[in-house]
């Protein structure tokens, strides 16, 4: 973003900040702490949709006193996370333990945008959630890096 007193040509303002290509994208998933693994959620599966609903209801957004929480219904989650063109690998979960419980989640959906008259495909990232018991393990930055990697693998920047 230019400073108020800096002069830039119009062409300079419409350039990419950082140009990358597919060869710049990491081939392998980012590592998770021992006992946890990556999984794709299938929200068409009632059991997995309920797992996500429970994780978000109990761990997503709340006030300091835990009195106010978002309570997204399963139909709303399906509506918002399964648009046309949805990529299954963009519904990214962290599972762990003997029962492979759901401990973290982040989503991406494809978005068609028009930027300065140019139509481009981008990704909207939402619903970053880590179970309260695992927040000390610093999973949120890893979830963000991994969803970014997966989006970039689709040549979306």
Overview of the structural elements:
With 157 residues, the protein is α+β, with helices and mostly antiparallel strands. It has a single domain (40-152), classed as Aminopeptidase. It contains four helices and four strands. The protein has helices at 10-13, 46-59, 74-81, 139-152; strands at residues 36-40, 91-96, 101-115, 118-130. The chain has a four-stranded antiparallel sheet. A hairpin with a 2-residue loop joins strand 3 and strand 4 (118-130). The longest helix has 14 residues, at 46-59. The model has no long low-confidence stretch (mean pLDDT 90).
Supply the key terms:
157 residues, alpha+beta, Aminopeptidase, four-stranded antiparallel β-sheet, 4 helices, 4 strands, 25% helix
Report a brief summary of the structure.
By secondary structure, the protein is of the alpha+beta class.
Strand content is 15-25%
Question: pLDDT average, as an integer?
Answer: 90
Mind telling me the CATH superfamily name? Gcn5-related N-acetyltransferase (GNAT)
Count, helices: 4
Helix and strand content put the structural class at alpha+beta
**Low-pLDDT windows of residues:** none
The tally of beta strands, per DSSP, is 4
What would you report as the Rg, rounded to the nearest angstrom? 18 Å
Report the CATH C-level class. Alpha Beta
What's the architecture in CATH terms? Answer: 3-Layer(aba) Sandwich
